[in-house]
Prior knowledge:
The protein is built from 13 helices and 13 strands.
Amino acid sequence: MNISEHSASNSTEKRLQADICVVGGAGHVGLPLSIVFARKNQRVLIYDLNQVVMNTIRNGQMPFMEIGAEPLLRDALAKGLLGFTNRAEDIANAKAVIITIGTPVDEFLTPSLRVMTRCLDDLLPFLSEDQLVVIRSTVYPGVTESMAKYALSKGKRLRFAFCPERIVEGHAIEELQTLPQIVSGTTAAAEDEAAALFCHIAPEVVRLAPTEAELAKVFTNAYRYIHFAVTNQFYMIASAANLDYYRILDGMKRNYPRSKDFPLAGFAAGPCLFKDTMQLASFYRNQFGLGFQAMLVNEGMPQFIVDRLDAAYPLDQMTVGLLGMAYKAESDDPRFSLSYKLKKILTFRAKAVLTTDPYVKTDSDLLGLDEVTRRSDILILGVPHDAYRRLSLEPKVVVDIWNFWGKGSLFSQSRSSIGSA
């Protein structure tokens, strides 16, 4: 049977035979992985409950931005290497099951295992001891071993592996095939099978124990989050002293190799960095002071911007336009974007707040760029999308924490526009 012909309906047609079933396979982690495995001639079954997105994928269209993905998706569909289902029973005939559901943090900033255990409860009746179960998304350290014990308590002795995704969203197709893959397993056999599986797509595999692999993932993201917090703290210090941070940064970095990798200031956001830093803090019994301080700095940037503006301008008489609502440049993903936190704060402080983004499609409040720039007294660059590179800014008050336009972090081209929009 051609795998791509399978319907995600509740029909009684013959169950699929697949090399790999990707659970949550229509998402940002699962779909690029599915496509890359299919490119290596693996038969991949995408299991997901979002039928609207599944239909989009089945029609050869990517539901989100991912460089180079759509041609490969269409090729995999044409070759019959991708199938789709919303029925848990269809995972039974896959040789390996890859779960792309991680552990979020709850309202108390502690990891929540409910999503993972609920997913496993749905799958357990159809999993067998002949299958490899791979946890792919970031999890709280110790979860892989815990899930193996949980399955055993339900009467299933499953081979679990943890093989964390390590890609930058939007560049997954390239990075899945060029970066080393960390693999681990609850047994030696599970580790070997995971290594063999990912050797199909990765140039190298690095073997660790499950908790080592889990920590390697959260260490990486926490390190990046702290790295961004350092530059953001320096930005705040310089700005509070009415100095141009980027003039100082240029002096630090110019022809000085030990500072060449020092990042720019900006919003450190998205679905991973904050969450994984908090997971690491929880793992270390909330003694991870460095991580908490990084959170206070990065999450405090929107409030800092508003306070600086409010001290300089009659903000309650002004309309503010936010340019970019995705969580990072050249992305259509607004999840955990600090632009939305900035919007929420400004709603209580400014006369009006207008928002725009060339890529985000899920926010009905977004306006066109021309309208936002025309009506706003103040423009704040939330995300440095390339579409804004040649934007005419005069005569607006402009806040550019990224130094995207190379004119300093906060500048006013004319105060005559205040209150005129």
